[in-house]
Design goal:
Elements (H helix, E strand, L loop, with lengths): L5 E2 L6 E2 L1 E8 L5 E8 L17 E2 L3 E4 L23 E4 L3 E20 L7 E8 L6 E8 L8 E20 L4 E10 L23 E5 L10 E3 L1 H5 L8 E3 L5 E6 L12 E7 L18 E2 L5 H6 L2 E14 L11 E8 L6 E6 L8 E6 L9 E6 L19 E8 L2 E7 L6 E6 L13 E8 L9 E14 L6
Parallel strand pairs: 18-19
Antiparallel strand pairs: 1-2, 3-4, 5-12, 6-8, 7-12, 8-11, 8-12, 9-10, 9-11, 13-14, 13-17, 15-16, 16-28, 17-27, 19-24, 19-28, 20-21, 20-27, 21-22, 22-23, 24-25, 25-26
């Protein structure tokens, strides 16, 4: 008989089992045999070794005096990430002091530096249990100069109630400014900020600029990140950042700053820029920054940055809204061809709350006065009461799309591994996009078409491939 062990996982006991085997008759002799099963030794379960992160509440923020009275220490822990809510102090060696309220294991900080994507901050970090004896946990720290949002700061692990950030000016001047600080128990914090930057993932960003729903320049509209800044590695941990699986995450809230006062919806979206950082070309007009249809006049084609176009994108939609007006719930635009004022195509993904898969369809907006938009359903339905599409695309499922324009023919292709391509075409001959004044550009990202959802909802997609090409455009991919 093999050994048998009974374990109680809550109190860790092993019990020996004693079994009695009986033979003979009731009339006399009884033969018995006692079998003792020896317990196996308890083997302790191996720990995974993974740190379970905890975000600590910071009870109090102070400084060493002499800071800007408009930007007090408490603004660095007020959960507001707008630039006007920051701590600022001028001079090397200034100190921002944080009190966790009790001693805790500290492994990292997340810091949102003021103008963190424009300049590098120099700093050191010390910790203390009693506020008297201090232990250095980071020396010669320097921020990346690429992070517009929070930046990961890993520390030597310590037991700490008090945290001292000693700031030493930045790459432009002696000012020290921190918009917000978070304290975390683990190195790497919650794992949401990875070491890679969006420009390191194989997607060429020099011919795109980015819209994000912040207003760091106090313009009243969303910020535009230039193609040169994108190519240099710009990242924002809230809206535009590298994913753990090697893509670029674009995340748009339902509410935030918009690209103009005439726009109803928030977006995190790339806009094609064929000028590639050459600011002598305007963003608007028939010029080397934009492209035209192959059915346009020869003189117009000669003035443009390219003729016709193809956009290839691989992505996964990670999140959509589940509340709001029926016609807005769960929808976003993941790719476009945009003209001066109208849109030859908006490519939609939409997943309704009761469905586990989403639909794909596109809209075409002719320039003809009085004409209606044309909708083409490719996978499932765009209806607000659509049933679960049998061949739909689930959240986090990777797929690809191709938008191709040749003269006035628009062709859209949806590709998925192991499945047949789905292709739809539309004749744009009567839509007037080949007029002499019409110019075009691709857009890729999360154009979030829900401004009625709960405030904490958002749309998010991760992009693994973005390639744009045009006849006559030397940098086509």
């Amino acid at each position: 008989m093999s050994s048998l062990v009974v374990r109680n996982k809550f109190i860790g006991l092993c019990c020996a089992l004693v079994m009695t085997a009986c033979g003979g008759s009731d009339s006399g002799g009884v033969n018995s045999q006692e079998v003792i099963v020896t317990p196996e030794p308890e083997v302790p379960e191996e720990s995974s070794g993974e740190c379970v992160n905890q975000l600590y509440n910071i009870a109090l923020a102070t400084d060493d005096g002499g800071g800007d009275p408009l930007y007090l220490p408490e603004k660095a822990i007020d959960n507001l990430t707008t630039p006007v809510s920051r701590w600022s102090s001028e001079g090397a060696g200034k100190e921002l002091l944080l009190d966790l309220g009790s001693a805790n294991t500290l492994g990292s900080l997340k810091i949102k530096w003021y103008e963190g994507a424009e300049r590098q901050a120099n700093f050191e970090v010390e910790t203390s249990i009693d506020g008297v004896i201090w232990e250095p946990v980071l020396e010669d720290g320097i921020s990346s100069g690429k992070h517009s949002g929070f930046e990961q700061v890993n520390l030597i692990e310590s037991e700490a109630r008090y945290i001292k950030i000693v700031v030493l000016g930045n790459s432009e001047n002696d000012w020290n400014s921190i918009v917000e600080v978070e304290a975390h128990s683990c190195e790497g914090a919650d794992g949401q900020i990875v070491a890679a930057f969006p420009n390191e993932l194989g997607i060429e960003l020099i011919d795109w600029y980015l819209s994000v729903p912040t207003d760091d320049d106090n313009s009243g509209t969303s910020d535009s990140i230039s193609e040169t800044k994108l190519a240099a590695g710009y990242t924002n941990s809230e809206y535009f950042y590298a994913s753990v699986d090697g893509g670029i995450v674009m995340r748009s809230p339902s509410y935030g700053f918009k690209t103009s006062t005439n726009t109803s919806y928030v977006r995190v979206e790339l806009r094609e820029m064929l000028r590639r950082g050459n600011n002598s070309f305007s963003t608007k007009g028939v010029n080397k920054n934009n492209w035209v249809f192959g059915s346009a006049a020869n003189s117009v084609q000669a003035d443009a940055g390219g003729v016709d176009g193809e956009l290839n994108v691989t992505l996964a939609v990670n999140n959509v809204t589940t509340t709001g007006e029926d016609y807005q719930v769960g929808r976003l635009v993941i790719g476009q061809v945009h003209a001066n004022d109208d849109e030859p195509i908006r490519l939609y993904y939409r997943k309704l709350p009761g469905n586990d898969r989403g639909s794909i369809y596109f809209a075409h907006e002719p320039r003809v006065i009085g004409s209606d938009e044309v909708y083409v359903e490719m996978i499932g339905s765009r209806s607000s009461s659509a049933s679960n599409p049998s061949d739909g695309i689930a959240l986090d499922e990777v797929f690809s799309y191709k938008i191709n324009v040749v003269a006035n023919l628009l062709t859209v292709t949806i590709r998925r591994e192991g499945k047949e391509d789905i292709v739809s075409s539309l004749d744009m001959s009567n839509s007037l996009f080949d007029a002499d004044d019409q110019y075009h550009y691709f857009k890729v990202g999360v154009y979030h078409l829900n401004n009625s959802s709960n405030a904490d909802e958002y749309a998010q997609a991760t992009f693994y491939e973005i390639r744009n090409s045009h006849t006559g455009y030397a940098d086509s991919e």
